[in-house]
Amino acid sequence: MAAMKFADCREQVENRGSVFQLAVGMVLLAFVAAGGTMEGQSLQAVVAESQVPGAITQAPKGTGGFGAEIGPSNAHENSGLAEGEADRAAIISLEESCAMKISALGVDGCPMTASRTDSSGTQELLPESFGPKPPLAAMDDSPRENVKAAAVEPSHTSKPDFNRNIYYKNKLELSFETGWHPVNIPFVYDFAVGDSYNTTSLKYTLVPIIASLRWHVNDIGGPWIFRGNFDFAFSGSVTLIPRGPETHYFAFIFGIRRNFVHRNWRIVPYFDEQGGIGKIDAKEPLGVLYGQGQNLTFTYNMGTGIRYNPDARYSISAGMNYMHISNGYLSEPKFVNYGINVYGPMLGIDVRLGKPRHYGSE
């Protein structure tokens, strides 16, 4: 009986020992699992401190250098180290390899991809890059500063010259001019023909009326005060003679004008010369002293003034004009060539023909 009780007591003791051993084993297993988890978290914290933003790409297993894979297959089996120590050793080795390659290229930082295998055999990616992280201010501030500088910098683009829509190559204009020339003077080129600068007692007053087709032969160009363009004028004129023995004069004349066009000036100075051939009702053959010696005569005009452009279609002009009429000594020796030399004010208006031109910035 006592033996049976002892056996039962022993069996209970053994059962209790087994339960205790099982409990102790479970506690130890829990500690081991907790230690592995904390070690993995500490490893991830170490890696996260040195990462820089970049894409995570998993490299093929077994490659070295950039894109090398780190895992138990290499670190645990070959080194004989514990799982956490092997991972640390692999990371250090990878950082050294990256540093050597990047130092050769002269580039800071080494974005890498690595992996590890946890206790369950599942492979997971480690943070994607190692190396010093560039300061965010260096990445963000420089573009913003460039944008601010571009926005603050004043524009030096010159204002478009609207005169380029008024004076341009192949522009056609219809021009009407009239004047009043009461002042009699000597022929301005007497020095060239050997005559003395004198006038006769017969005085003239001429009223020229000129209709012209103006053709601008070039665009604006030239330096400094000579900047401008040329236009040719093909004109027909009727000249009334309110004072003098003759009464009228018809002529065809051709001339050239230089327009001195400065940037965005609406008032444009000009200088022109014209010459042609015409017919006058000569009176010297009829016995009028100092009258014109024959009907066929030549004319020469020289003038200067200003032209005002209210817009690209219309303009008005005002200036002074010198007018000469003579037969070029063709009537001599039968009739003396006295000629007519007068000057006075001229007024005119110009109208563009055709479509407008739209010129951009200069």
Tell me briefly what this model is.
The protein is α+β, with helices and mostly antiparallel strands and 362 residues long. It has five helices and 13 strands.
Order of helices and strands: HHHEEEEHEEHEEEEEEE
Q: Measured on Cα atoms, how large is the radius of gyration?
A: 54 Å
Please state roughly what percent of the residues sit in beta strands, choosing from under 5%, 5-15%, 15-25%, 25-35%, 35-45% or over 45%: 25-35%
Main pleated-sheet profile? 8 strands, antiparallel, barrel
Uncertain runs with pLDDT below 50, 5 residues or more? Answer: 52-81, 101-113, 151-156
CATH architecture identity of the largest domain: Beta Barrel
CATH level 3 topology of the largest domain:
Porin
- Using the coordinates above, name the CATH class of the largest domain: Mainly Beta
Could you estimate the helical fraction of the residues in percent?
25-40%
Mass-distribution shape? rod-shaped
Mean pLDDT: 76
Ends distance = 127 Å
Structure classification: alpha+beta
Task: State the helix count.
Answer: 5
The total count of strands amounts to 13
Strand order of the largest sheet: 5-7-8-9-10-11-12-13
Q: In the residues, how many domains can be counted?
A: 2
Secondary structure elements and pairings:
Blueprint: H1 2-49, H2 72-79, H3 83-105, E1 110-111, E2 115-117, E3 123-125, E4 129-130, H4 136-152, E5 172-179, E6 183-184, H5 190-193, E7 205-216, E8 228-243, E9 248-260, E10 267-280, E11 296-308, E12 314-326, E13 340-353
Antiparallel strand pairs: 1-4, 2-3, 5-7, 5-13, 6-13, 7-8, 8-9, 9-10, 10-11, 11-12, 12-13
